């Protein structure tokens, strides 16, 4: 989520993990990649290299992609609800995919099937979660290196509930708290890079509802306002933007009309 980046433990089934650059000899390895929700986000500085320093609370959600690793190489994609009907950014199954970058980082090779349930471009960390699942599978636990792939990858490597600082590489676990959130996800995404650039251009505004990127996201994508207002009308609560967008969320369960009711993930 931090410009200029891009922006519960796995469940293993079947074969033993790949060793070195070789592929599994028998059956697939199935990994769970939970979504993350940025509950609060403050921008506390900008480094000389342009990276933004944050102070955020993030939690894992009970919504996850599935990453299936097998013999060979290449990435294939399939989509299941809610990813099949929400979110607005396309996902490339090529060398720029975060999973492909994660495999290169750990010097492994595998054919990867991504079963996507986390909507793309919604601020829920789907690509980061997938990459982190691969890193955990490979036994990789360097948070600085993980954040080098994308700012949310380090948190997704740890999962649970945590305070996140630096450019995403500082992850301090917090006691788990069971919560339920209601999300409304527009059929369009937000570019993390564009939102951070807008935040800079607007003079670094501080958000009055727990997310410093809200004004910048609305500047980049004015359509966000109608989705925010719809969630507020349905719940009676003021929604908060999830990270750089495009999801809006409130705490509590308010089902109906395309809203997603998702509890935090158990760890």
List the keywords.
single chain, disordered N terminus, 7 helices, Ribosomal Protein S5, domain 2, 267 residues, Alpha-Beta Plaits, 28% strand
Question: How is this structure best described in words?
Answer:
It is built from 7 helices and 10 strands. With 267 residues, the chain is of the alpha+beta class. The chain has 2 domains: 145 residues, Ribosomal Protein S5, domain 2, CATH 3.30.230; 84 residues, GHMP kinase, C-terminal domain (Alpha-Beta Plaits, 2-Layer Sandwich), CATH 3.30.70. The strands form 2 sheets. Strands 1, 2, 3, 4, 5 and 6 form a 6-stranded mixed beta sheet that branches. A 4-stranded antiparallel beta sheet has the order 8-9-7-10. The longest helix has 12 residues. The N terminus is likely disordered.
Q: What's the CATH first level of the largest domain?
A: Alpha Beta
- Name the poorly predicted regions: 1-25
Which range best describes the helical content: under 10%, 10-25%, 25-40%, 40-55%, 55-70% or over 70%?
10-25%
Shape: globular
**Strand residue percentage:** 25-35%
The total number of structural domains is 2
Counting DSSP H or I runs of 4 or more residues, the number of helices is 7
Largest sheet: 6 strands, mixed
| Strand segment tally | 10
Instruction: Tell me the radius of gyration.
Output: 18 Å
Distance from first to last alpha carbon = 23 Å
SSE series: EEEHEHHHEEEHHHEEE
Mean pLDDT: 89
């Amino acid at each position: 989520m931090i410009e200029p980046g891009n922006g519960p433990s796995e469940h293993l089934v079947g074969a033993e993990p790949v060793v070195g650059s070789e592929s599994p000899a028998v059956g697939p390895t199935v990994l769970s990649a939970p979504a993350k929700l940025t509950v609060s986000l403050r921008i506390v500085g900008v480094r000389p290299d342009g990276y933004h320093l944050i102070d955020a609370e993030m939690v894992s959600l009970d919504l996850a992609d599935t990453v299936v690793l097998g013999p060979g190489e290449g990435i294939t994609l399939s989509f299941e609800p809610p990813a099949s009907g929400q979110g607005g950014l396309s996902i490339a199954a090529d060398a720029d995919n975060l999973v492909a970058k994660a495999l290169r980082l750990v010097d492994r090779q595998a054919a990867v099937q991504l079963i996507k349930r986390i909507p793309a471009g919604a601020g829920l960390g789907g690509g980061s979660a997938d990459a982190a699942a691969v890193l955990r599978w490979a036994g990789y636990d360097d948070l600085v290196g993980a954040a080098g792939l994308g700012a949310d990858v380090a948190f997704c490597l740890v999962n649970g509930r945590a305070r996140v600082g630096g450019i995403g590489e500082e992850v301090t676990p917090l006691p788990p708290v069971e919560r339920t959130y209601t999300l409304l996800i527009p059929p369009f995404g937000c570019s993390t890079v564009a939102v951070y650039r807008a935040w800079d251009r607007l003079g670094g505004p501080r958000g009055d509802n727990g997310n410093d990127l809200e004004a910048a996201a609305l500047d980049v994508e004015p359509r966000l306002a109608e989705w925010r207002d719809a969630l507020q009308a349905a719940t009676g609560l003021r929604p908060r933007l999830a990270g750089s967008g495009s999801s809006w969320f409130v705490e509590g369960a308010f089902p109906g009309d395309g809203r997603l009711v998702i509890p935090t993930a158990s760890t």
